[in-house]
Every structure is written in structure tokens, then in C-alpha cells.
């Protein structure tokens, strides 16, 4: 990729994961071509790459748009995520290299720093990267595409519940950080059963976050 294409590819991914580009939003080819200094052909190459990974949807009469987050998407996400995350974690414990474990540890530290900085965006980005690395550790060509596709929507959904400035989330976020550390240790010890168990515990915490964000708070109405 040329520099302009690489930057567009990276930037669009981050803008989608952080909801700067909202689900379903149309992409303006003219504006993006001008902004990144590339012609329509390489621009559309990037769109096709991102569509293949699940970030974008391409329609002949509409062009490129951000992949939607629908009720069906959420249902399918809740059904598939724990199974695929667990299988990926088992293989990560089996196949991870020493260098990958070092990188995973660094990623976990960045997540912890985002908690301290109370940065919602950075929490989502570094949590996404942590789990991407576990997918790479698994080293399985069949699981990786599904795992990464789940992480796209997981990151986007997380923008609705990772409210780092919310004092009620301080303990659950700290728990998430500790679970990351436990997962790293289980992978380092090649403990597949423990890795799988920790993923289910981590998923339960994520599900609690998500359900809290999707459930309206009780209304305080005086009668």
C-alpha cells in the first residue's frame, strides 16, 4: 500500500471502532480522496479490503457505508462471541510465542493506563488490540476471521458502556484489567482449560457491561 492508502486504511478502522463513523454512515469518496491525497481506484481498494474484514458494507447503487449494528447483529454477537472467544483462547495457550506474550503484556498495560487516564476511546482501542493479539496467537486460519469480525462489533458496542469517568465502573474496569493479567499468565503456562475458563469469566463481565448500557435506568418518578 502507498502511504495515503495505509493511512486511510488505519484511520477508517479506528474511526469505525470508536464510533467517530457511526454504524450505517455513508462514506464520501470525493472528500476522502481529497483528504488522503489518493485517487478513486486505491480508495476503492481500501473499501474492498475493509468490507472483506467486516468494517464496511458495499452496495452497487449506494457505495460504501459503515457496517450496521442491528438487533440481529447484537443477537448473533451474543450467541457466537463466547464460543469463538473460548476456542481462540484455548489455541492461544497452545500456540503463543514468547514474543507474542510480551506484546500481549504490553497491550494489557496500555489498557490499564487508559483506565487511569479515564479515556473511553483508549479503553476500547486497547481492549480491542489485546483480544486481537489473542486471535493471532491462536494461529488458526478458520477462527481468525470470525474472531476479528466479532471484535469489530465488540469494540463498537463497548463505546456505549466503557465510561471511564463513571465512578460506578471503576471496580468492574479494574476487574477487567486483572482478568487480562490472569489470561496472560494462563497462556504463558500453556494452560488451555484455565484460558478457556477465564474467557468465560471475562465474557460474563463484558455481558454485564453491555446489558447495563442497553437497559434504561429506572425512572425516579414521584407518584
What's the quick description here?
With 223 residues, this protein is mostly helical.
Molecular structure report:
The chain is mainly alpha-helical and about 220 residues long. The protein has two domains: about 5-65, Arc Repressor Mutant, subunit A, CATH 1.10.10.10; about 70-215, Up-down Bundle (Four Helix Bundle (Hemerythrin (Met), subunit A)), CATH 1.20.120. The protein has nine helices and two strands; from the N terminus they run αααββαααααα. It has a two-stranded antiparallel ribbon. Helix 5 (about 100-115) packs antiparallel against helix 8 and helix 8 runs antiparallel to helix 9 (about 190-215). The radius of gyration is 19 Å and the shape is globular. The termini are far apart. About 30% of the residues are buried. Mean pLDDT is about 90; it is low at about 220-223. It comes from Hoeflea prorocentri. This is GntR family transcriptional regulator. Keywords: DNA-binding, Transcription, Transcription regulation. GO terms for molecular function: DNA binding; DNA-binding transcription factor activity.
Number-wise, the strands total 2
Radius of gyration: 19 Å
Query: Quick one: biggest sheet?
Result: 2 strands, antiparallel
Number of helices: 9
Beta-strand content estimate: under 5%
Order of helices and strands: HHHEEHHHHHH
Poorly predicted sequence stretches spanning 5 or more consecutive residues: 218-223
Which structural class fits the helix and strand makeup? Answer: mainly alpha
**What is the total domain count?**
2
CATH superfamily of the largest domain: GntR ligand-binding domain-like
Helical coverage, percent range? over 70%
Domain HTH gntR-type: 2-69
Pfam families: FCD, GntR
InterPro entries: GntR_C (IPR011711), TF_FadR/GntR_C (IPR008920), Tscrpt_reg_HTH_GntR (IPR000524), WH-like_DNA-bd_sf (IPR036388), WH_DNA-bd_sf (IPR036390)
GO molecular function, one term: DNA-binding transcription factor activity
Amino acid at each position: 500500500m502507498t502511504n495515503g492508502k495505509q493511512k486511510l486504511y488505519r484511520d477508517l478502522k479506528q474511526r469505525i471502532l470508536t464510533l467517530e463513523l457511526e454504524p450505517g454512515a455513508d462514506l464520501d469518496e470525493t472528500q476522502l480522496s481529497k483528504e488522503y491525497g489518493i485517487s478513486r481506484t486505491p480508495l476503492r481498494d481500501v473499501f474492498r479490503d475493509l468490507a472483506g474484514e467486516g468494517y464496511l458494507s458495499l452496495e452497487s447503487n449506494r457505495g460504501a457505508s459503515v457496517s450496521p449494528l442491528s438487533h440481529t447483529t447484537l443477537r448473533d454477537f451474543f450467541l457466537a462471541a463466547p464460543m469463538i472467544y473460548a476456542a481462540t483462547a484455548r489455541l492461544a495457550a497452545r500456540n503463543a510465542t514468547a514474543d507474542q506474550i510480551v506484546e500481549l503484556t504490553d497491550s494489557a498495560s496500555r489498557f490499564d493506563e487508559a483506565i487511569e487516564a479515564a479515556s473511553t476511546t483508549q479503553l476500547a482501542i486497547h481492549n480491542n488490540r489485546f483480544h486481537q493479539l489473542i486471535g493471532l496467537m491462536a494461529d488458526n486460519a478458520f477462527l481468525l476471521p470470525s474472531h476479528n469480525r466479532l471484535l469489530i462489533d465488540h469494540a463498537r458496542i463497548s463505546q456505549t458502556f466503557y465510561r471511564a469517568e463513571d465512578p460506578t465502573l471503576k471496580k468492574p474496569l479494574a476487574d477487567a484489567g486483572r482478568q487480562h493479567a490472569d489470561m496472560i499468565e494462563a497462556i504463558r503456562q500453556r494452560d488451555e482449560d484455565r484460558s478457556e475458563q477465564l474467557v468465560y469469566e471475562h465474557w460474563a463481565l463484558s455481558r454485564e457491561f453491555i446489558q447495563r448500557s442497553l437497559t434504561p435506568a429506572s425512572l425516579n418518578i414521584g407518584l
